[in-house]
Specification:
elongated; 2 strands; two-stranded antiparallel sheet; 6 helices; mainly alpha
């Protein structure tokens, strides 16, 4: 899913780069070493090779088969792009970022609905609200009125 750059601070690229450098371009969840921007594949393979026979190294073979798994991104753990506190940010490889976002899909959808104007009612524990009626948005309400039989 593409990111909405308007939700991020203007210096987001610098913030993300600083975090990736802090973790030495390794995923903070699975410790996968990731490719740096502009780094040639041959240089990256040399960097991740753990044996003299680089072609036989499982990591090298995996990189050659699935290079996008070795891209590092920075995730907002609470899914609020404006919250750039370091405790809320983690450098994650593509695989870990996707898994994290998938587990958090409900929260992401909730926050997106709020950003697009869906209101929420704050319920007070001491008071019981009875007879409250919520209206549909005008265009939705008119659709249902016109199409209900």
């Amino acid at each position: 899913m593409p990111m909405d750059r308007s939700l991020y601070p203007p210096d987001w690229d610098q913030i993300a780069a600083r975090i990736k450098d802090e973790v030495d371009w390794c995923c903070e969840f699975c410790s996968r070493t990731c490719i740096k921007p502009g780094e040639l594949a041959a240089d990256f393979i040399k960097r991740i090779s753990t044996t003299e026979a680089a072609e036989d190294c499982p990591t090298v073979a995996d990189f050659k088969a699935f290079p996008r798994r070795y891209v590092l991104s920075v995730a907002h753990l609470n899914h609020i792009p404006g919250d750039c506190d370091r405790s809320n940010l983690k450098a994650l490889c593509t695989s870990c970022h996707c898994r994290y976002d998938l587990r958090q899909m409900g929260r992401k959808q909730y926050l997106k609905r709020e950003r697009h104007g869906q209101l929420r009612i704050e319920w007070e524990t001491s008071a019981k609200l009875e007879g409250i009626q919520l209206a549909l948005l005008p265009e939705v309400e008119s659709y249902w009125l016109e199409n209900s039989a």
